[in-house]
Q: What sequence folds into this?
């Protein structure tokens, strides 16, 4: 049960991160006030790196920023490692129904 809550939160954060990158791209096209990069980085660090990265690639936004093109994949790998450790130590009680 805990794993479903965890997955739901991660999916929601990734969706929100994707939306923020997409909206920032739209605001940039329209010369409107932009979404701060700090917000995108924070969302990425707290679980939304995959959503941010997918939006960056799909909408060609922030792809010239080396910090984003290198940093996001590093954060994604870090998140995969964290989840792997949590599953390995059965933190979510996956194997104990």
A:
């Amino acid at each position: 049960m805990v794993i479903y809550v965890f997955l739901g939160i991660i999916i929601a954060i990734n969706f929100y991160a994707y939306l923020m990158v997409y909206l920032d791209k739209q605001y940039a096209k329209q010369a409107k006030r932009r979404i701060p990069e700090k917000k995108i980085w924070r969302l990425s660090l707290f679980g939304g790196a995959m959503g941010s990265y997918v939006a960056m690639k799909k909408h060609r936004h922030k792809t010239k920023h080396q910090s984003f093109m290198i940093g996001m994949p590093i954060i994604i790998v870090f998140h995969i490692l964290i989840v792997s450790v949590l599953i390995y130590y059965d933190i979510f009680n996956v194997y104990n129904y």
